[in-house]
Design the sequence.
């Protein structure tokens, strides 16, 4: 079965609010994680990554948090905008392996 | 555009026909990956190349599937005797070979519909 999964398949958020998307993983050998955004009809777009020796990393309007104790990953989007509406995937990479394992995704819908 | 490109973007074929997809990675990337994505699911790994060498193949890649990267640049994915279950989005990704982490950049995908 999948080793990476998301807590909720859908998330509806008011424009301007902050969004939090959660992801649980089960493989303790995973040492690198990526969040991707996928819009309809397009390939996944890299958002932000984090290595297992970190617990937080910030980008532009996004923050990824990693809790290795409970094998949990989250993506926070600040001041959510209509353009943030998409499916968000977390992906994990096991050390010395090259393929990514993806969860099923969370569909984020931004309400005006 | 210097990103990953894939052709064709859409392919409709009849069951039993052969199809071939092409992927052009970011030029300085020596790692290239193929994934398959079905509706509502995340991408699933199919195979991976480092330069021209195919280093790993998923169990998902049946004998009807073959991938090549003859000169270490573009790659092709061929599906022989297509089945309706092959209908999916086929995604290609590439990553640089010198970084410790595995930041993969995806192309727009080829959507295959098998009738």
Sequence:
């Amino acid at each position: 079965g999948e080793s990476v999964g998301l807590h909720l398949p859908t998330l509806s958020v008011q424009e301007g609010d902050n969004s939090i998307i959660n992801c649980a993983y089960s493989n303790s050998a995973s040492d690198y994680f990526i969040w991707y955004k996928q819009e309809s009809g397009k390939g996944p777009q890299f958002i932000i990554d984090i290595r297992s020796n970190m617990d937080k990393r910030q980008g532009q309007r996004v923050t990824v948090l990693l809790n290795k104790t409970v094998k949990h990953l989250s993506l926070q989007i600040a001041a959510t905008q209509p353009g943030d509406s998409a499916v968000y995937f977390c992906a994990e990479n096991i050390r010395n392996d090259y393929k990514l394992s993806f969860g099923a995704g969370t569909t984020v819908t931004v309400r005006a | 555009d210097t990103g990953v490109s894939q052709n064709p973007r859409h392919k409709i074929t009849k069951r039993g026909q052969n199809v071939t997809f092409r992927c052009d990675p970011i030029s300085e990337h020596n790692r290239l990956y193929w994934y398959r994505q079905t509706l509502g699911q995340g991408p699933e790994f199919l195979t991976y190349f480092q330069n021209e060498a195919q280093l790993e193949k998923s169990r998902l890649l049946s004998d009807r599937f073959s991938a090549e990267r003859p000169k270490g640049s573009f790659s092709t994915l061929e599906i022989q005797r297509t089945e309706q279950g092959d209908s999916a989005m086929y995604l290609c990704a590439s990553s640089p070979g010198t970084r410790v982490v595995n930041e993969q950049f995806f192309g727009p995908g080829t959507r295959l519909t098998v009738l």
